[in-house]
Queue: 2 jobs
Job 1
Amino acid sequence: MDDFIAVNEPVLSGNEKDYLVRCIETGWISSEGPAVREFEERMARRVGREYGVAVSNGSTALELAVRTLRLPEGSEVIMPAFTIISCAAAILRAGLIPVLVDAEPLTWNMDVSRIAKKLTPKTRAIMVVHIYGLPTDVQPILELAAQRQLRVVEDAAEMHGQTYRGKACGSFGDVSVFSFYTNKHITTGEGGMIMTDDAALAEACRSLRNLSHSPRRRFVHDELGFNYRLTNLQAAVGLAQLERLDESVRKKRRIGAFYNAHFSSLPEVELPPVKTDYAENIYWVYGMVLSNSLDFDAEEMMSRLREMGVGTRPFFWGMHEQPVFRKMGLFAGEHYPVTERIARRGFYVPSGLGVTEEQQARVAECVTRALRM
Ligand SMILES: Cc1ncc(COP(=O)(O)O)c(C=O)c1O
């Protein structure tokens, strides 16, 4: 279908092409090039952190972030049940145990009031994940972490340009991460970055992302590292994207406002809040949850929209319901009712930076029709 509206279209209309041409003309295309360091420094400055370490994607950023905390094997890490699998994978691959907390029904973020009940003597860290456009309420988490001497990992993969009580997301964890996948407010196609103020942590991440060559001699290794490097080509695109971040966030808010205006009168859907007392939504994606009064779920809704030429994506699927974790014997008998409900009834509509008002109007009309078929 030619006029199919994709769930995401990136915008690459700034200096991306010029910066890429410069890479090609100078021959700097690998991770050794100068754009990588420049992108790291500019991101760190933007977020108010000392260090940025660019890596191949947000999942590898999470993996290195968790691993470099060097927590004792078998330590427990609190994390949301409602998130992407990369979060739990990073914890498990570091030899740690993920402990889940349900989402709260309005913002879909981890329900902070439920964390205390999950603490045990083995808890060593909390992973905060900001979901879809509004940050998690981090202040109580930081207080709890300070009281209990817990480390904080902040997954700000979706939160470029977002703030919590006026301070940039990505500045709250001992280590924080961003993703630069193509649907993010800053994209490098694939890419990610670890942010920290801790020089030793940053250095450990730099070493692990590049095979952990020994500082004494290249090709000698005291530790098993990875190749998680970002290329200069990707970083060059990232620099151009970063230049337009504020504009991109404004555009996202216009997209959100447009949908809010069209959907807020529909009793059949629950919409994302415009703001909380600590942040204004940036609508990384525009999600909605079907009300219980409807006798069909998000899968049916998405299939109706696909027939009408509208791309969608389902919400995340709870960690405790992942077949891979069930097979590993994890989360047996655990239930998280909010996560289970929004995973089945939630989906998001085209809300990438490239979506036009005409497309949004068609999406709005199709959603209304699909709800009432
Ligand atoms: C919250 C969150 N964390 C981590 C990731 C993983 O990032 P990537 O796709 O770059 O590996 C994503 C991806 O969208 C995400 O939404």
Job 2
Amino acid sequence: MSVTLLSSPLQGFTDFRFRNAFQKYFGGIDTFYAPYIRLDGKLKIKNSYQRDLLPAHNTELEVIPQIMTNDADEFLFVVKYIQELGYSELNWNLGCPYPMVTKRGMGSGLICDPEKIDHILNRVHNETDIVVSMKMRMGYDNPEEILETFPILDKYPLKNIAIHARIGKQLYKGGVNLEAFQRCVENTSHKLYYNGDITSVAKFKDMQDRFPSIDHWMIGRGLIADPFLPSMIKNNTLEHPKNRWEIFSEFHDTIYHEYDAFLSGPTPIKMKMQGFWEYFSTAFSNPQKTFKKIKKANNPKAYQQAVSDILKNE
Ligand SMILES: Cc1cc2nc3c(=O)[nH]c(=O)nc-3n(C[C@H](O)[C@H](O)[C@H](O)COP(=O)(O)O)c2cc1C
């Protein structure tokens, strides 16, 4: 069966700088989802979202923009914005688990409100010709919520529904619920993509064996932790390339220089790279020691030295 791999968006990580460097050094991803656009009541697109979606910043890869909202007018506004940029699909985030979002009936807090979902999809399909896809958890409180929502979703020509096989109140804790994901497979006529905890080729193969009807797979954190993972899945190999750390080092230096040129001052770049290292370090032989070294590096010179020491030890 063919395998299509999607990069699952991570706000604060998978922006255009990361995506372009990833594509240059690793490959293996067919389509990248951009992190969500959120308007917060004002019909205005923040500069950071604008920069991220600018076609000139995304020439080498296929990108699908994403929105997080529970408001039809906001949705329509963003559709118009992305269509003017040349995009033809908008992905709708019904997965975000954070209470600040869910308490306001957005992200995974919207899954239990099929009427509102119906209203928004109805307006979007009547008033625009945008292709809509969904990215959802299976519920906020329980994984049956999505089953109640499927009859509404089945009324619309959605391109696909990507499902992160957790519920919102779990945040990122506990495991994925594969029994509940199987119930999703059995209860919708839409094409489903699987998302959640694909962190190695072996794990990917387990998922593929378990869900033979799924041929689209989204990878989020696993791709940052080990950026070789998508190409290894595609090449059906458990082996990293021989020059693994050389390639990683070039990739690292590329994103470091790009973020350093954009962010001003030593603290923002430290925090940015530390965020990446929280994931990168998990692929090193001693994750804790690796991350500690990065955290301790309090100026750019010490940081470069720490990275160089870490890579030399691998
Ligand atoms: C820091 C962080 C930021 C995220 N930002 C987004 C986002 O902007 N849009 C979205 O749909 N999901 C977002 N997610 C969820 C991931 O895309 C993904 O669905 C989730 O991590 C499960 O997949 P994984 O186990 O492969 O990481 C985010 C997750 C994390 C940890």
